[in-house]
Structure formats: C-alpha cells, structure tokens
Design brief:
The protein is mainly β. It has a single domain, classed as CpcT/CpeT domain (Lipocalin), CATH 2.40.128.590. Helices cover 14% and strands 36% of the residues. A ten-stranded antiparallel barrel has the order 1-2-3-4-5-7-8-10-11-13. The longest helix is centred in the N-terminal third of the chain and has 14 residues.
Length: 215
C-alpha cells in the first residue's frame, strides 16, 4: 500500500508539471529536403563573373563546409565570406543550421561563432572544421533565419521575415536577406535598413550571384 501511495504521489507531481528532469524531444529533425539543400549549398563559390560585368559588385569568395555531420537535428554548415584579394581575412563568418519544417520548407538558421571569429578563418579547408566547438557555444541570430521553399525541382528560394533581423551595421536598424539556391549557384541579396526603411548598406540593383567552383 505504501508503494502504491508513493506511485500516486509521483504521478500527481508529473501531472502538475513539477518534475524538472524531463527533456523534450529534439525541436528539429532531418529530412530528404534538408539533406538535398545542404548538399547543394556545400562547396566554394565566386562572384567574379558578376563583378566583371557590373562594378557595383565585388569579387567575393564564399565557402560553405559541412560540420558536425553526426548531429541528428538537421545539417550544419560553416560559412566564410571574403574579398578575393583578402581571401584569408574573411569579413563574414557564420554557422548555418538547416532544419525541416512541417510545411516542407527548409530553414537556414544563423549563428555567430564564439570569441574572435578570425581564429576560425580557413576552417573550411579542414576535414572536420570546428570540431573543437559544440552547437551550444554558438550565439543565435534571432530573426535572421531564411526559410527556403521549393520553386521548382531544381530551385529553392526564400527570405528573412520583414524587419525581424536586427542589425546595427552602418546605422542600420535591421537587415534582410533574399536567397535562391540551386545545385550550381547561390544568389544572395543582403541589405541593411534604418528605422525609417531607408537602405543604408548592401547592393542596390539586385542579389550577388555566386557560381559554384570546381572542386
């Protein structure tokens, strides 16, 4: 009888939400779509061709390398962007977390690296980049994720949500990103706007066109 009473008490505690040891299931899962988009995005890219035909666009190199491939909660990519003439000194370094949504979309969540990002410069060249880090050490860029949806069998595209991605760069209040992904190209239009909605940085004509380079 005593054991039965203890069991009843434990059940009552659980029903009232007082048990603190419960760990919820992973909020994100993998999917064939996530694997496909991650495979398309992985690689090295260049905007050299675009820069040669329009002076507004710089010659930029972009590297995306899979990391933490044993994680069950989607796919992770280390992302590095630099001017061609200073390829070893990237001006943008991020981690993308590609996750599946129930509506079939794939969202690319954005994270900042801990400490000085330049200590990780060139990590895309390694077999297992950022293996010294864990996802819990990253800082999420809330509101900056890009939700990609299929436009055709060979093209996915999406954008950030309105003014939800906060930014203070060059007087901006928020930033937006519009992205298209195919197996051989990524277009990316990143812009910053002040509180009145005036653009203060980023390309004005349209997105950067990054062509995937031979491995």
């Amino acid at each position: 009888m005593k054991q039965f009473a203890q069991w009843i008490a434990m059940c009552a505690l659980a029903a009232c939400g007082t048990v603190t040891q419960y760990e919820p299931p992973l909020p994100y899962q993998n999917s064939p779509q996530v694997n496909m988009i991650a495979g398309w995005m992985a690689g090295s890219y260049s905007s050299a061709a675009q820069s040669q035909t329009d002076s507004e666009y710089k010659d930029i190199v972009l590297h995306m390398k899979p990391i933490w491939t044993d994680q069950p909660d989607g796919r992770w990519l280390y992302v590095e962007q630099a001017m061609q003439e200073a390829a070893d000194k990237p001006y943008r370094q991020r981690v993308y977390h590609l996750v599946h949504h129930d509506d079939g979309a794939v969202e690319s969540l954005v994270f900042e690296l801990p400490g000085d990002p330049l200590q990780y410069a060139g990590a895309w060249k390694q077999d297992k980049p950022l293996n010294q880090l864990m996802p819990s050490q990253l800082t999420p860029r809330s509101g900056c994720g890009v939700k990609l949806k299929a436009k055709s069998a060979t093209q996915w595209s999406g954008s950030t949500d309105g003014d939800m991605c906060a930014s203070s760069l060059r007087g901006a209040a928020y930033a937006t990103s519009e992205v298209t992904v195919t197996e051989s190209e990524i277009t990316s239009w990143n812009r910053g706007f002040d509180s009145s909605g005036k653009q203060v940085w980023g390309a004005t004509k349209g997105p950067y066109q990054f062509k995937k380079q031979p491995q």
